[in-house]
């Protein structure tokens, strides 16, 4: 593993972006989404980037980079079209022990920025260690199709109930069993279907009576028989089903994707 994967809290922290163009803007947006306060330094700064920095509670310094710009910042990004400036920023930042990323130049960077699938609070980062950026982009696109935005809603629901579950179940084993069953059961299905109030109601009922596990019946259309045409939700339900009822029109390829220990 070339890089240690880590999620860093930057909320309210000053972060330096050296550069004022399109690339700097793209990196700055990512920082602002995590709550960072931008310090932008460049002789020429795009108006949108200037506004972004000001809205973040940061500052704009329209001039050449100076070593003093590194004072009191948490993280540094160099996104200029000048090789000497990028090298200077990298060297100065690393001398101070600051994490620095020079865009598209891993050799000058102490960290790299991955492709991100944002389903906050669920966040998935994908990296090829700078070796294959196109492959990273394709992997990100594939993951985005497999992980709908509802996963974030489900994580928010779990977060709201963690304290109550801790009170309800004394041991970590009991809590883990409860969450494993819940996140693969009706509660998750209701969240994925957009029925958030019903999901919360069922979760409350499960906490009041953990032994009560109501069954649910789903009807899945198998289409023309091509497994590649199944939706993500259909595949997820098939792989969770305890009992599967099917007719002669369902192809063997589709049935092969059902959970192996399901009753057919």
Element pattern in H and E: EHEHEEHEEEHHHHHHH
Helix content: 40-55%
Report the C-alpha radius of gyration, rounded: 24 Å
Strand order across the biggest sheet?
A: 3-2-1-4-5
CATH topological fold name of the largest domain: Rossmann fold
Mean pLDDT: 91
Quick one: how many beta strands?
A: 7
Shape: elongated
Q: Going by CATH, what is the homologous superfamily of the largest domain?
A: NAD(P)-binding Rossmann-like Domain
Structural class: alpha/beta
Counting structural domains, the number is: 4
Largest sheet: 5 strands, parallel
Show unreliable segments: none
CATH architecture of the largest domain: 3-Layer(aba) Sandwich
Structure characterization notes:
The chain is an alpha/beta fold and 264 residues long. The chain folds into 4 domains: 1-113, NAD(P)-binding Rossmann-like Domain (Rossmann fold, 3-Layer(aba) Sandwich); 114-146, Double Stranded RNA Binding Domain, CATH 3.30.160; 150-208, Orthogonal Bundle (Helicase, Ruva Protein, domain 3), CATH 1.10.8; 217-264, Cobalt-precorrin-4 Transmethylase, domain 1 (3-Layer(aba) Sandwich). Helix content is 42%, strand content 11%. The chain has helices spanning 22-33, 47-55, 83-95, 133-146, 150-168, 172-183, 186-192, 196-208, 232-238, 252-255; strands at 14-18, 37-41, 59-61, 75-78, 100-102, 115-119, 122-126. 19% of the residues are buried.
């Amino acid at each position: 593993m070339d890089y240690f994967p880590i999620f860093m809290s930057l909320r309210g922290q000053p972060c330096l972006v050296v550069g004022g163009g399109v690339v700097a803007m793209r990196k700055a947006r990512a920082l602002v989404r995590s709550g960072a306060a931008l310090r932008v330094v460049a002789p020429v700064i795009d108006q949108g980037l200037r506004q972004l920095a000001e809205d973040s509670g940061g500052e704009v310094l329209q001039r050449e980079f100076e070593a003093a710009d590194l004072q009191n910042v948490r993280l540094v990004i160099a996104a200029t079209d000048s090789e000497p400036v990028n090298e200077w920023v990298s060297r100065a930042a690393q001398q101070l022990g600051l994490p620095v990323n020079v865009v598209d130049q891993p050799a000058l960077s102490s960290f790299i920025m991955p492709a991100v699938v944002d389903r906050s609070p669920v966040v998935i980062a994908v990296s090829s260690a700078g070796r294959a950026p196109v492959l990273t982009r394709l992997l990100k696109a594939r993951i985005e199709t497999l992980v709908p935005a509802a996963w974030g809603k489900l994580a928010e629901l779990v977060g709201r109930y963690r304290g109550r579950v801790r009170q309800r179940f004394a041991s970590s084993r009991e809590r883990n069993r409860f969450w494993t069953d819940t996140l693969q059961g009706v509660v998750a299905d209701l969240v994925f279907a957009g029925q958030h109030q019903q999901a919360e109601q069922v979760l409350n009922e499960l906490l009041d009576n953990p032994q009560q596990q109501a069954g649910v019946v789903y009807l899945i259309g198998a289409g023309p028989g091509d497994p590649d045409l199944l939706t993500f939700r259909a595949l997820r339900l098939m792989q969770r089903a305890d009992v599967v009822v099917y007719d002669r029109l369902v192809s063997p390829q589709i049935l092969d994707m059902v959970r192996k220990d399901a009753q057919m």
